[in-house]
Amino acid sequence: MTATIPTLTRRYVVLNVLGWLPTGLCAPVLILLLAARGIDMATMGALLAAYGLTAAALELPTGGLADVVGRRPVLIAASLLFLVSTISLGIGTGVLVLGAGILLEAAGRALDSGPLQAWYVDAVHAVDEDVDLTSAFAHGRTAGSIALAVGALAGGALAALAPLPSAGAGPVLALSLPYLAAAGVIVVRIVVQLAWVGETVRRPRADLRAVLADIPRTVRVGISTCARVGVLRRITVLCGVIGVVLAAVELLAPLQIAASLGGDSRAVGAFAVFTALGGFAMAAGSAASPTLTRLLGSVRRTVVLALVLTAVAVAALGTPLLLVVAAGYVGVYLALGAPEPLLDTLTHRAATAGERATVLSVQSLALRICGSVGALAAGVLAAHASATAVWVLVVAVLGLGALVATGLPGREPAATATEAGPVLEPA
């Protein structure tokens, strides 16, 4: 029996929650856990760089894999990688085990970047090809952001209040508990995925050799599509802009806030609270997206306004006042939450089921690569010039993004033969 659209939407929202709750649990403690295990700063930097490079290298092949073998097996594989990763990071004591856990998480993140949303769109379109997806995407984004925020608060509380050693050679520290809790959530996620996620698009049976052989073709099609279809090209550029903004904010803002609070003694609590505030703010922005678009009367105006407001929030980060910096930090996530459901909808209107996951992976790759470049540039500028120079650069990038966004459709485009048919044929 085919599930109804409300049922599919509820499942999509729950799966978003189960996807982001483990990330929220672990986000405030990763760096502190590595330090507690005796990992020096240079090694931490190398591990985080390896994470970014691994995720970027696997982004497109794994997106293509989801379009070749199906959404369900790729989602399950991603969850299994996350499970092994969280356990490795939670109880690992040596750099090799911890490094393996970080690389497995990167591989899982690459696998997980598009299949859930692609499954939802496939399933809904099997019921009604013309259904409006903006509200559903907004609900999914909102639920995921709230889950991340709640997870951050819970993870910070677990680590801060647990009657366990804060450092040492033992396999379980206070900082390990958020990772072990995340592993439990991931087990639940796997069970729910097995129960709810099915395949609605028929794919021919293929052996492993055929699957691997078809991935490069699918990847080429995804890249070609994002380059040739105007709306997808603009969205891909905007993903890169968002990557630069988030990388700079996540690198410098926590350090500014922690320094203003007087050092590392309250680091776990501070990072947990601000991660949560950012998650709640992004949830609020996503939830407000459909209403804001109706008020402004245009998708284009909503996205441009969101980028302008993000620039204002970034400018606030350059002030010496803690409260203004904190408001700017929250404001960035609030403003960036609004355009995401709209960009999701535009993407899925311009892509067909056969390339949908790959197109999402191209966009995620743009975000990752530009984020890596942004983090590198922010670090160099902050070290050799000042944090203010970083914020000036980020505002300039947002200005470029606003200019690109002026070319987006005014309203959600209907799927047409021009946008969703011939342009997606193999190059």
Walk me through this protein's architecture.
- This protein is mainly α.
- The protein has a single domain, classed as Up-down Bundle (Growth Hormone, Chain: A).
- The protein is built from 17 helices and no strands.
- The protein has helices at 5-26, 30-36, 41-69, 71-91, 95-111, 115-127, 134-161, 177-196, 208-228, 230-260, 267-296, 299-317, 322-337, 339-350, 356-384, 387-405, 417-420.
- The longest helix is centred in the middle third of the chain and has 31 residues, at 230-260.
- The radius of gyration is 21 Å and the shape is globular.
What is the CATH superfamily label? Answer: MFS general substrate transporter like domains
**Low-confidence parts lasting 5 or more residues at pLDDT below 50?**
413-427
Global shape = globular
Q: How does the major sheet shape up?
A: none
Radius of gyration: 21 Å
**Whole-Å distance between the termini?**
38 Å
Sketch the topology as an H/E string, one letter per element.
Answer: HHHHHHHHHHHHHHHHH
Number of domains: 1
The quaternary state of the protein chains shown equals single chain
Count of extended strands: 0
- Class from helix and strand fractions: mainly alpha
- In the CATH hierarchy, the third-tier topology is known as Growth Hormone, Chain: A
CATH top level assignment:
Mainly Alpha
Helix content: over 70%
Architecture (CATH level 2) name: Up-down Bundle
Question: Residue-averaged pLDDT, rounded?
Answer: 81
In DSSP terms (H or I, runs of 4 or more residues), the helix count works out at 17
How much of the sequence lies in strands comes to under 5%
